[in-house]
Specification:
138 residues, alpha/beta, Rossmann fold, 7-stranded mixed β-sheet
Length: 138
Amino acid sequence: MTVTETSTPEETVASGRDLARRLSPGACVALSGDLGAGKTHFVRGLVAGWDGAEPATSPTFTLLHEYKTPRGPVFHLDLYRAQSAEEVWAAAHDELEAPHGLVVVEWADRFPELVPPGAIRVELLHAGEGRRRITIES
């Protein structure tokens, strides 16, 4: 387990970038934590760590964004507004099982049954005074 504190959005992005560089295609990152704690900034870092040119945005209203990178696609799912695991599975089961890309699931704690065994779990929490605490468990 690794615990890091960040003070700026750029530091949160850098934390995601550092993790992404160690991940191979087929990996899954399950994000959880406080609303507004920097999950989407962390995802921006994951995409950048795979040399993606497009900045990640929150897919809250679309469930899924796909980012093309030289290392393979990054599939970014946001379960915040999803009504059920069945809804998510029906819309994104191919992406959730993608062996050729990186799967990132925001709000993964909403439907833990969708998170594959072996997923890297990342929790982002407010740590006071504008800081964020990022805990990474692999």
